[in-house]
C-alpha cells in the first residue's frame, strides 16, 4: 500500500485536516514531516516526524524515505522534482498534480521569479488559500486515494 508524505512545514492547517480525515477513512499510512512537531490527533494511520533544524532537513528526510508509488503533498518544487525522480506522485495543497511533464518548467519559472525578486522587482507572493483551493485539494486527494488504496 502506498504511503502519503506531507511536507508539513508549509502545509495549511485546513489541508492538514483534510489529509488526516482522508488517511483515517482509507487506512493509509501518512507521515507529516517538518522541522518542528506538527500537532496531530492520535491515530493509527497518521504520524508526525520532527527532524533536526537545518535548511532542507525535512525535505532530505522525505526524499530518503519516499518510495515509488507513494504520494507527496508539497508546494516545494525542488522537493517535488526529487520525489518524482524517485517514482513518487506529487500533488500541491491546491490539488495540482506535479509530474515529469510539468515539473521542470515549474522549477525554471520559480528560478526566474527568484531572479526577478533579487533584482528588486516586486512579483507578489502566492494567493491566499481559498475555499475553492480547499475543495480542489480534497477532491484531488480523494481521487488519488480511490485509485491507489
TrEMBL record:
InterPro entries attached to this UniProt entry: UPF0178
Leader sequence segment: none
Top-level taxonomic group: Bacteria
Cited Pfam families: DUF188
NCBIfam families on file: PRK00124.1 (NF001095)
Protein family per UniProt: Belongs to the UPF0178 family.
PANTHER family: UPF0178 PROTEIN YAII (PTHR35146:SF1)
Name of the protein in its database record: UPF0178 protein BDK63_002183
Organism for this UniProt entry: Halomonas campaniensis
